[in-house]
Every structure is written in structure tokens, then in C-alpha cells.
């Protein structure tokens, strides 16, 4: 018969306690993670509606930098129809007096985000040509049809001039609506926020100069 010493019993007891504490710690970590993930999108519609409504305060406080623009797709609206407007914050003014038309093509630098959330305190980045800090010198560009973008994005473009750098706030009604994007990266009822710079544009049937040649002038 094999006897277990008192020292061995103590060691086994200590190992048992450590094992129990490890299990409890794992359970707590798992629960915390699940709670965080669940809370990320809690009351998402209400939070987005409140966020967009709060932009009116920014407009009233600084009307020289902020602007509210009626969507091109809306023939008329009252001041209470806030979901028919976009808000823009003008970060840098460009040049010229001409703006793209709905049928034009544009070359832009942009980055799209959701509103701030628990994990993404500056907003989840869902798309863009920007890697790191927004910069005309280092960011990539892309060509788009104005008519091929969501109404809010298209509305902003049709009011911009070459070189304009704006932050554009688009309600879900002028973005991806109740369903969200087809890729699933943008939940339904999301306000989408674009940092956007219009580099150039061309009318239908015209050829737009290459960006690399324009940048090196």
C-alpha cells in the first residue's frame, strides 16, 4: 500500500485551489468579453438618432465652419425633417467655383466611420483610401461615379469644389437605411461619417487627368 505524505496532500490541495481559481478567472473573462460584444451595438438606432440630432448644436455654435445641406434627392423639407439633411464640417477650403454634377466622375480621398462605440472610441472604420493619418500627400485616391454613391455622399460631392476637405455626417435614411450594408460591416440605422477630400472631377465623356501627374506639378 502506497502512503501519501502530509506534504504531498498540501501540494495537491494547493494545486486544486489554483485550478479552481483559474476556472473562475476564465469564466469571468468569458462573461466580460460577451458583455462587451453584446453592449457594442445596444440601442444602436436610438444612439445614432441622438448623435445625429446633437449635430445641430455644432451648427448653431459655429455656423462658419458647419453647414446643413438638404439631400439632392429631396424636393423640399422642413427644419424638423432632420433625416433629409446631411451635416458637414469644413476642414479645408479648396479653389474654384465649379462642383461635380450627378452624372460626373470624381477622384477623392476618403475614410468612412461609424459613430463612436465602446470598443471603437473614434468610430469603427469600415472603408476608405486612407492608411493612418489623413493626408493628401500620402493617402491613396479612388475614382467614383457621383451617381454610384449613397444619397448623402452624393449630396456632399455636388456641393464641393476641388481641394475641399470636409467631414460629412450622413443619417441612415441617406445612407444604408434600416438594413445596413450588404457586406454586414455597417449595421442598420447607422449614421455614417466620412472624412472626404475632392481632388478632381470630370464631366461625362471627358477623361480625368491622372492623379500622379497632377500631384507632381
State the main characteristics:
217 residues; 4 helices; globular; alpha+beta; 7 strands; seven-stranded antiparallel sheet
Compact description:
This protein is an alpha+beta fold and 217 residues long.
Task: Give the SSE map.
Layout: H1 6-40, H2 44-61, E1 66-70, E2 85-92, E3 105-113, E4 125-128, E5 142-145, H3 151-157, E6 165-170, E7 192-202, H4 211-215
Antiparallel strand pairs: 1-2, 2-6, 3-4, 3-5, 3-7, 6-7
Please provide a written account of the structure:
The protein is α+β, with helices and mostly antiparallel strands and 217 residues long. 30% of the residues lie in helices and 22% in strands. The protein has four helices and seven strands, in the order ααβββββαββα. Strands 1, 2, 3, 4, 5, 6 and 7 form a seven-stranded antiparallel sheet that branches. The N and C termini lie far apart (93 Å). Residues 26-37 have low confidence and may be disordered.
The portion of residues forming beta strands comes to: 15-25%
Q: What is the assembly state of the chains in this entry?
A: single chain
Largest beta-sheet characterization = 7 strands, antiparallel
Shape: globular
Nearest-integer average pLDDT: 84
* Helix-residue proportion: 25-40%
